[in-house]
Predict the 3D structure of the following.
Amino acid sequence: MKIKKPSDLTAKVAELRAGLSGKTRLQVSLGTCGIAAGGSPIAAALRKHIAEQGLEKKFEVVDVGCLGLCYCEPMVEVKSAKGKSIIYGHVSEEQIPAIVAAGASKTAEGLEALKTSLYYPEEQAKPKKKVVQTRIALRNSGRINPEKLEDYLLQDGYQALAKVLSDMKPAQVCDELVESGLRGRGGGGFPTGKKWQFAAAQPKGQKYIICNADEGDPGAFMDRAVLEGDPHAVLEAMAIGGYAIGSDTGLIYIRAEYPLAIARLKKAIEQATAAGLLGKNIFGSGFDFNIELKYGAGAFVCGEETALIHSIEGKRGEPTFKPPFPAVRGLWGKPTIVNNVETLANIPAIFRQGAAWFKSIGTPGSPGSKVFALAGKISNVGLVEVPMGIKLRDIIFELGGGIANGREFKAVQTGGPSGGCLTAKNLDTAIDYESLKALGSMMGSGGMIIMDEDTCMVNIARFFLEFTVDESCGKCTPCRIGNKRLFEILDKICAGQGTPEMLDQLEELGNVIKDTSLCGLGQTSPNPVLSTLKNFPEEYKAHIFEHRCPAAVCTSLLNYTINENCIGCGICARNCPVNCISGLPKTRHHIDQSKCIKCGACMRSCKFAAIDRK
Amino acid sequence: MTCCCEKTESALEKLSRLEPEKTASLNAFLDQLPIGKDVESNRAHLIVALHQAQGIFGYLPSEVQQIIAERLKLTRSEIYGVISFYSYFTDQPIGRFKINVCCGTACFVKGANLVVEQFSRELKIKEGETSADGRFFLGVLRCVGACSLAPVVMVNERVYGNVTPAMVSKIIADCKD
């Protein structure tokens, strides 16, 4: 059915509600991470089991996006029609009969269910935990079938667009967004409503709205989760933005590395167009809007809006000087708005529930919630969406489950290669745009890489600089040459060739690059070095003055030796790829340091803890 | 030396002779692009054309670049500039088994570099190289977004999670033609 006016949407939703089967849903998380962990065979096995047992009237298997519980994929959520939910992690095919037999009323025998209160905060009348998630951008991700428009409509989908097009003038839309205080979730934190106002103020004519889905920050995957789990939310938000600024064309610039997100977006665009929610004369308002996909080709700098625009134009993705801002002169010289995926995913909720509601969440300066991708040495790797102003401690130790394998927390890198590290003394900082900046880091896209005592901070700084050197577009000198020199200094320190003056050189050069680079990539690239230098000076000094890597990571500074535990079994010698271990059977063996390549194969193969690494 | 007035084989003719099916498929794609006289708007099709061409040929040999340049009315140098800028594009043929080790931050802190070194030792190629028999390509990626499985290795479409250096020889053994 084509939806031609707002009342058609109401009728359609009423029809869908009436047609609900009342079946218990068996939801299998099939985002990229779920599929990689083996979710597809589980979904197939569930379908087979339901068919074999003749339970089609009671159960339906639903493919959903990512719920954010990446650490326990493949996962199955059993959800009754009344909303009662039980989540199982690390599901194997053998467990399926027990899970189906137990249904939604009780936990399957012999299995343990995950705490759903962390993921369904609003359904928990009295939260027992003090820290719960606030899911706005991720509200549908992992709960609906992203490939079905009907599922999105049942979650109030396209209601915001209907309301905006029938009740609001474009200027009111921009004002409401300014009022909500929503800030760009992609990194910079610029007020989104202001951006829209700038573009809306430009003379009438061709304008563009671009969704930046070039999620390049390694270790951040929230945009992928939204695109794979709730693509229609992004389309709806883009249409609202198009109406607000007077644009009839939206473009989604997406990484070619996200094939699943691309497929789901394509499908969503087709469905929305077929239903009349995109295309000509949407909701009978006279507003036309179409969305096209544009592919990236692997360049981190293309997350910068001017570089992204050049890439869409078919050029090298090099940034240009601002002003003029894209809102004034953007794609093909026309006024253009570039918004990040997560930012857009917040917008339908803001227009449905109002700016005042949105402002009531988070902090006055940074309203709303933020999705963080927890990765690295943390127990619960995955996505969490929390109100701004939450303490780092609550994210890492409550929601993230603390450090994996019982190790000590050392630091957390926020903001990816552009951010810095926060340490144990920052654990009680309330997280928002300003507080992170004050600590020498930044919000960035919301990646949080958690590090424990086995992580070498100098080596991490070197890793990020290697990334920046690789990804610098080469247009401006400070970034192209400065970062290369920074990297070389760090490389020498890691190789045990550091000199005392290098500490000052790192700081001075870092500050020059920060002050003089053209775009955000260069201006933030020294952050990882400067913040590790400030927070962990003793590690740098240990590398330089003592030729020692305290975390035992930098291979050039390590020596493998065999201690008295050795019983002479010879397994290390057989595993050594360069044959540098010798010794008679049943006597203590010896490693020839001149030949050792420090690969660690001996240490991994030894069953008697007889190999030391120092 | 042949005389310059002698007719030389064009890029299209050469490619059609060497790879007739692939060339036909590329041509079919280029035919349906709305290419006009305006270079600015033609350029907007460049990246999608390169994606398509690399999907067909596996890489972007100079003849393919020449054909795309002629169709879009762009210069070869500009096309080469774009190819060399984006890490997704390559003008060198790469191995049939594309072994890509994720070196995103999450994988790195969990020891992905040791996995790369182990592949490099066993395959006797460096990162970014293809083995002499044309079977293996060893590369690194920046985050495939499967951080919960870190370190991650992708061999063509297949994903291996929680990879340790000890698993490397098994992964290589899994690659059967």
About this structure: Chain B has a mean pLDDT of 90. The first strand of chain B starts at residue 97 and ends at 102. Chain B has nine helices and four strands.
